[in-house]
Amino acid sequence: MKPVLQLQGVGKSYRRGDEQVLVLDDFDFTLDAGEFVVVTGPSGAGKSTLLHVAGGLDAPDRGTVSVTGQDVWSMSAGARAAFRRRNLGFVFQFFNLVPMLTAVENVSLPLVLDGVRARSADARARELLERIGLGDRAGHRPAELSGGQMQRVAVARALAARPSIILADEPTGNLDSHSSTEVLDLLRSLSDEDGAAVVMVTHDPAAARYGSRELRLVDGRASAVDEAAPAEEK
Ligand SMILES: Nc1ncnc2c1ncn2[C@@H]1O[C@H](COP(=O)(O)OP(=O)(O)O)[C@@H](O)[C@H]1O
Ligand SMILES: [Mg+2]
């Protein structure tokens, strides 16, 4: 099967004062279609950096990042932004919904930005809201929703354009355990149904069990990577 995401020889460091902090060093990673990979590791290990580089948000110093066979970092910035909207969905710890927009407008936003006609963008967003059990909240703004509901909306938004990959950075980091379970169940079932692979960073042992494979970032600065045994079957 062709991988949907491939990082080869990726290097990434940040400058902190006079110091160069090496975060990813000659990093290789392959994600197959439909996989659900959980990324764990201590704070500062480079988990967020990995998602940013893989997702076309932060440029690597060296190496290549291919999404569905296309070299993300050889594109122009404009082409990369469009490519990202169509092929990648993001879920963040603090939801990152647009406060002024309703739930249905937040979910349809990536489609509208991509030039999809309003009527079909709206229909896709409403279908997703039904699937996440928030069909009756379509007209609510984020401030009128609970944390768990906001994150479910963010999951729906990430899937709106039918991306091949969802990148989620501690999506349950700000939720109670009941909401966490709801969000993770949704992330897994929606990504399964829509055929999206998932890379999810988490600190939460309960969340880690959702993965079909675990990638542990250890010794972040040296970025040794250890592909741990498959996560426990759920
Ligand atoms: N924009 C940045 N500028 C400088 N240093 C950064 C930046 N982003 C991350 N870092 C550093 O890179 C390392 C990895 O950070 P990060 O990827 O956020 O780790 P994690 O998500 O695993 O906690 C940390 O030492 C962090 O301080
Ligand atoms: Mg992080």
Extended strand count: 10
Range of helix content: 25-40%
End-to-end Cα distance, whole Å, is 24 Å
**Radius of gyration from CA coordinates:** 17 Å
CATH class bucket of the domain at 5-97 and 162-229 = Alpha Beta
Q: Are any ligands bound, and if so which?
A: adenosine-5'-diphosphate, magnesium ion
Task: Please describe what this structure looks like.
With 234 residues, the protein is α/β, with parallel strands linked by helices. It has a domain at 5-97 and 162-229: P-loop containing nucleotide triphosphate hydrolases (Rossmann fold), CATH 3.40.50. 34% of the residues lie in helices and 28% in strands. It has helices at 47-54, 77-87, 103-113, 118-131, 147-159, 177-194, 205-208, and strands at 3-16, 19-32, 36-40, 62-67, 70-71, 88-91, 165-169, 197-201, 213-218, 224-227. A six-stranded mixed sheet has the order 6-7-8-3-9-10, with helices on both faces. Strands 2-1-4-5 form a four-stranded antiparallel sheet, with helices on one face.
